[in-house]
Structure formats: C-alpha cells, structure tokens
Design goal:
Layout lengths: L1 H16 L4 H17 L31 E3 L5 E5 L22 E3 L6 E2 L13 E3 L4 E5 L12 E3 L4 E3 L14 E3 L21 E3 L6 E2 L13 E3 L4 E4 L13 E3 L4 E5 L12 E3 L4 E4 L13 E3 L4 E4 L13 E3 L4 E5 L12 E3 L4 E4 L3 H7 L6 E3 L4 E5 H4 L8 E3 L4 E5 L12 E3 L4 E3 L14 E3 L6 E3 L12 E3 L4 E3 L14 E3 L12 E2 L7
Parallel strand pairs: 2-3, 3-5, 4-6, 5-7, 6-8, 7-9, 9-10, 10-12, 11-13, 12-14, 13-15, 14-16, 15-17, 16-18, 17-19, 18-20, 19-21, 20-22, 21-23, 22-24, 23-25, 24-26, 25-27, 26-28, 27-29, 28-30, 30-32, 31-33, 32-34
Antiparallel strand pairs: 1-2, 34-35
Bound molecules: 2-acetamido-2-deoxy-beta-D-glucopyranose (10 copies).
One 2-acetamido-2-deoxy-beta-D-glucopyranose binds next to loops.
Family: Belongs to the RLP family.
Subcellular location: Cell membrane
Keywords: ATP-binding, Cell membrane, Glycoprotein, Leucine-rich repeat, Membrane, Nucleotide-binding, Phosphoprotein, Receptor, Repeat, Signal, Transferase, Transmembrane, Transmembrane helix
C-alpha cells in the first residue's frame, strides 16, 4: 500500500504529460498497474522483483519493459509476464486485468499464488498462453475463461480447484494444450471438449471426475496425448478413440471403466503407451492390438479381461512392458511372445494360464533386456528340471502357485543378477542345489511348500544380500546351518521343517538399519 500512495501522484503527472502521446502513457499506466499488484505481495522485498520500481531514472517515464520477467512489444506495451518458479506469494485480486490490453502470455506457474481465479481474467483479451499451474488456487474454474478466445495453452494443473470443468471451455477453438490435472475437479468431462479440434494434449488426471468418457473426444484428430487416469470415470472406452491416429499416449488407469476394450483401438497407429490398468474392463484383448506397431508399454493389469493372450501381441517388436496380470486370461502363453526381444517386464501373474512355459520364453529370458518375469498364480505345468536354463541378466522370476514339477536346477547358481526367485507352492522335488549360493545378488528366495528333501546347503549363507528366505513346507532334514545366523541382513526367515502346518513358528530377525 505504501508504494501505491507514493505512486498515485506520479501516475496523474505522467498521464497529464503524455496524454497526447498515447503509446507512452499506456506504458506508464501499465507499469503503475503492475506495481499496484506488486504492493499486494506478501513479501515486499522479494529479490527477483526489486527491478519492479519507479526509481530507474527520474528523467524518463516509468516503463515496465526492462523489469524482471516482463516483455513488451515495440510500442512498450506489456505482452508477456513470466514469473515461473520464483516463490511469489500473492492473490490475483489486484492483478491489473483491465490495464494490460496486449498481454498475450502469462506464466505464473510454480509459485505460491492462492485465492480464486477471478472471472475478470476474461479481460485479458489477447491472451494466448495462460499457465497458473502448481500454485494454491482454489474455488472453481471461472466459465468466463472461455472469453479468452485466442487461448492456445491453458494450464491450471496442481492447484486445489474444485467444481466441474466448465463446458464453455469447448468454445476455445484455438486451444492446443489443456492441463487441469491434479486438482479436485468433479462432475463429468463435458462433451463440448470434442469441439477443441486443434487439441494436442489433454491432461485431466488425478481429479475426482466421474461419469462416462464422451465419445466426442474421438473427434479430436490432432490429439497426441490423453491422460484421464486416477479419476472416477465409469462406462466404456469409446470406440471412436480408434480415430486418434496421432495419439501416442493413452492413460486411463485407476478409474472404474467397464465393458470391452474396443477393437478399433488397433487403429491408433501412432500409439506408443497404453495404460488401462486398475479398471473393470472385461471381454477379450482384441487381436487388433497386434497392429499397434509402435507400442512400447501395454499395461492392462487388474481388470476382468478373459480369454487368451492374442498371439498377435508377438508382432509388437518395440514392446518393453507387457503387463497383463490380475485378469482372467486363460489358454497357454503364446510362443510368439518369444519374439519380443525388447521386453524388460513380462507380467502375467494372477490369471488362469495353463500349459507349459514355452521354450521361446525361456530363450527370451536369456536376453540382456528382460529383467523381470512374473508368472505366479496361474496353472502352468511342466518339468522345470532342464527347461529353465541360465539367465545371467534376469533379476526377478516369480513362478509360485503353479503346477511345476521336477528339480531345482543347479543352473540357478549361474544367474548372477538374480535378486528374487519365487517358486513356492509347486510340486518341485529333489534337493536345494548348493550352487544357488553363487547367485550373490539374491534378496528373496522362496521355495516353500514343495516336496524338497535333503539338507539346507551351508552355502546359502554366502547369499549375503538375502533379506527373506522361505524354505518351509518341504521335507528338509538335518539341522539349520549355524552360518545362517550370521547373515546380518536377513529380515525374515521361515524354514521350519516338518512341523504340522498350524505349528509353524516363525523366526524373525529385525533388520538393524536398512530400508
Ligand atoms: C524479507 O523480509 C522479511 C521480513 O519482512 C525477512 O524475514 C526476510 O528475511 C526478508 N527476505 C529477504 C530476501 O531479504
Ligand atoms: C530499481 O530497478 C533497477 C533495475 O531496473 C535496479 O538497478 C535498482 O536497484 C532498483 N531500485 C531499488 C530501490 O530496488
Ligand atoms: C518462463 O520462463 C521459463 C524459464 O524461466 C521458461 O521455461 C518458460 O517457458 C517461460 N514461459 C513462457 C510462457 O515463455
Ligand atoms: C470449493 O472449495 C471452496 C474452498 O476452497 C469451498 O468453499 C467450496 O464449497 C467448494 N465447492 C465445491 C463445489 O466443492
Ligand atoms: C494429485 O493431486 C493432488 C492435489 O489435488 C496432489 O497433492 C497430489 O500430489 C497429486 N498426485 C499425483 C500423483 O500427482
Ligand atoms: C468393479 O466392479 C465391481 C462390481 O461390479 C466393484 O465392486 C468394484 O469396485 C469395481 N472395481 C473397480 C476398480 O472399479
Ligand atoms: C477360457 O475361458 C472361457 C470362458 O471365459 C472358456 O469358454 C474357454 O473354453 C476357456 N479356454 C481355455 C483354453 O481354457
Ligand atoms: C524332469 O526332467 C528330468 C530331466 O529331463 C528327469 O530326470 C526327471 O525325471 C523329470 N521329473 C519328473 C517328475 O518328471
Ligand atoms: C506331485 O509330485 C508327486 C510325486 O513327487 C506326484 O505323486 C503328484 O501327482 C504330483 N502332483 C501334481 C499336482 O503334479
Ligand atoms: C507345537 O509343537 C509343540 C512341540 O514341539 C507342542 O508342545 C505344541 O503343543 C504344538 N502346538 C500346536 C498348536 O500344535
């Protein structure tokens, strides 16, 4: 307020002096209007705003054009204000909306701005770029924002905005980027967004948006990325999304979407990532998925998908993450998956997959790239004595709760990168090979509830990274090697031998510091 009273006579003076010279008086008026907003800042001595003052040179008019974060046109009228990331704490209550007729870009992101977004923002009629993301704005998105007809970018992400998305936003026909993510928005996605024909990026994730996904979004043929995840969306994935030929990323995970995955999605020829996990999608995985040649990430886990894994998925040479677990998929694992030579994670656990683990998958596991294989809780059958070979690069393999039999191969000792080996609750026989003590990276080893016999090899105590060791539910004999007690990291040990199930006690060693 102090600077305002000092400046008021100056404003009058400057206005009188230059009243015939329109341009100059505009610049001074803009400067004073900005200073009025500065006066409402919580921290007046904010170092980056020291240049926002009138004391530059008493002989010249006050112009904001050299001020920090401010840009002007050739007529010295403000066209851009950029204060991103400077810890500015203020409301927009005193912002000079009506005094900046040429403001085209306003970037106040990543500050501590708070209060509402005033409807008066619609007075910035030349605005093309508005970024108020990552502040503490609250209240609703004013529908008047739709009067900013030149807007191309509207970023309001990471605030506390509530209420629903105004359907008037559909009038912003030049909009290319709309980011309303990480707020508290509720209500439905307005179908009017389907009119934003230039839209490239639509980010609505991490809100409480409910209702169905409007099929009209399938009209937005310029869309490159769509993030609708972490909301409360219901109903089906519209088949119109098949029209989105430029779409590279489609994120719809953690909603309550239901119904089938439309086979039209196979037409999204640029698609690189699709994440539909943690929904209620049902029906088959469409064979048209095999047409998505650029796909690198396919995350469909935690749904109700049934039927077979389409063989055509083996065509997706670029695939890095194939995550189909926690569904009701049945049939056998297609041998064609062995062609996915860029795969890092194969996650098929908690399904109803049967048959044997194809040799082709075994070969894939020998490659450098594949690091994690999750096949637990299926109905896989087969003798793993020899099939499972030497995987020098594999880090995680989970085969628990299947119907595998045969012996634990001594080859496992040659898997030098192995961190986690889970083969619990199968029908393994024979002894625990001492060679396993050579896989020095192992953190978790679980061979419980099989038919293993013989002694616990002393060499297991060489597994100095071991945190969890489960050997219980077998027919192991002899004594517990004393060396196990020296394994300083061991958090959880369950190796009790032939006691009846309900009389198993667990020996727990609390870890000293780690994790
Ligand atoms: C700004 O002023 C406040 C007190 O009003 C003081 O605590 C703070 O250290 C000052 N900051 C700078 C950068 O001078
Ligand atoms: C006013 O801003 C100028 C730069 O525009 C700066 O050099 C000067 O130190 C500032 N004056 C005050 C009092 O902060
Ligand atoms: C604002 O400045 C930052 C760098 O400080 C830049 O990354 C950002 O693109 C600028 N915003 C605009 C709208 O020019
Ligand atoms: C939105 O939040 C404001 C406070 O920030 C609250 O007063 C208002 O009731 C909320 N409105 C809705 C619709 O939740
Ligand atoms: C989700 O949004 C809230 C604000 O509403 C934020 O605090 C949180 O960090 C966001 N979460 C993610 C994962 O972005
Ligand atoms: C899926 O639907 C069932 C009822 O049909 C419901 O109980 C469950 O919460 C839904 N799950 C998700 C992730 O929406
Ligand atoms: C897979 O499950 C479906 C029912 O969801 C059944 O009709 C089909 O026979 C099953 N196929 C196999 C190979 O088990
Ligand atoms: C598993 O295969 C191995 C090697 O081919 C063989 O020696 C063993 O008898 C088989 N085990 C069972 C239970 O069929
Ligand atoms: C498990 O192996 C035993 C022999 O070790 C055999 O009798 C039994 O049928 C097998 N069970 C299954 C489910 O394969
Ligand atoms: C467990 O075994 C011990 C003997 O080792 C016995 O005294 C105890 O009663 C058993 N407990 C149960 C619940 O069976």
């Amino acid at each position: 307020m102090k600077s305002l009273t000092v400046l008021a006579p100056l404003l009058l003076c400057v206005t009188l002096l230059f009243s015939s010279l329109n341009v100059a008086s505009d610049s001074a008026a803009e400067a004073l209007a900005i200073l009025k907003w500065k006066a409402s800042l919580q921290s007046q001595n904010h170092s980056v705003l020291l240049s926002w003052n009138t004391s530059n040179n008493p002989n010249t008019k006050t112009s904001p054009c050299a001020w920090f974060g401010i840009h002007c046109n050739h007529a010295d009228s403000v066209t851009k204000i950029n204060l991103t990331g400077y810890g500015v704490k203020v409301t927009l209550h005193s912002f000079p909306f009506s005094s900046l007729p040429n403001l085209a870009e306003l970037d106040l992101s990543t500050n501590e701005l708070y209060g509402i977004i005033p409807p008066k923002i619609s007075q910035l009629s030349k605005l093309t770029y508005l970024d108020l993301s990552y502040n503490q704005f609250s209240g609703q998105i004013p529908p008047e924002i739709s009067h900013l007809v030149h807007l191309q970018t509207l970023h309001l992400a990471g605030n506390q905005l509530n209420g629903s998305i105004p359907r008037e936003i559909g009038q912003l026909k030049f909009l290319t980027d709309l980011a309303l993510c990480s707020n508290k928005l509720n209500g439905c996605i307005p179908a009017s967004l389907g009119k934003l024909s230039r839209l490239v990026s639509l980010l609505l994730y991490n809100n409480s948006i409910s209702g169905p996904i409007p099929p009209e979004l399938g009209n937005l043929r310029n869309l490159v990325e769509v993030y609708l995840d972490t909301n409360r969306l219901t109903g089906p994935i519209p088949s119109t999304f098949g029209n989105l030929k430029k779409l590279t990323v489609l994120q719809m995970f953690t909603n309550s979407l239901s119904g089938p995955i439309p086979s039209e999605l196979g037409n999204m020829e640029s698609l690189s990532e699709i994440s539909l996990y943690h929904n209620n999608l049902s029906g088959l995985i469409p064979t048209s998925f095999g047409d998505l040649r650029h796909l690198t990430v396919a995350r469909l886990y935690e749904n109700q998908l049934s039927g077979p894994i389409p063989e055509e998925i083996g065509n997706l040479n670029s695939l890095v993450y194939l995550e189909l677990g926690e569904n009701q998929l049945n049939g056998s694992i297609p041998a064609s998956l062995g062609s996915l030579s860029n795969l890092k994670i194969l996650h098929l656990r908690d399904n109803r997959l049967s048959g044997s683990i194809p040799n082709e998958i075994g070969n894939l596991m020998k490659l450098i790239v594949l690091k994690r294989v999750y096949l637990e809780r299926n109905r896989l059958r087969g003798n793993i004595s020899e099939d499972l070979g030497i995987y020098p690069n594999l880090r995680f393999i989970e085969l628990s709760d299947n119907e595998l039999y045969g012996e634990v191969s001594s080859n496992w000792g040659l898997c030098r990168s192995l961190q986690s080996l889970f083969i619990a609750r199968n029908n393994l026989s024979g002894t625990i090979p001492a060679e396993i003590g050579n896989s020095r990276q192992i953190h978790r080893l679980d061979v419980s509830s099989n038919h293993l016999v013989g002694e616990i090899p002393k060499k297991i105590s060489k597994l100095t990274s071991l945190l969890y060791l489960y050997l219980n539910g077998n027919k192991l004999s002899g004594s517990v090697p004393l060396e196990l007690g020296l394994m300083s990291k061991l958090l959880y040990l369950d190796l009790l031998l032939d006691l009846p199930a309900k009389n198993k006690s667990k020996i727990e060693w609390k870890q000293k510091e780690e994790n």
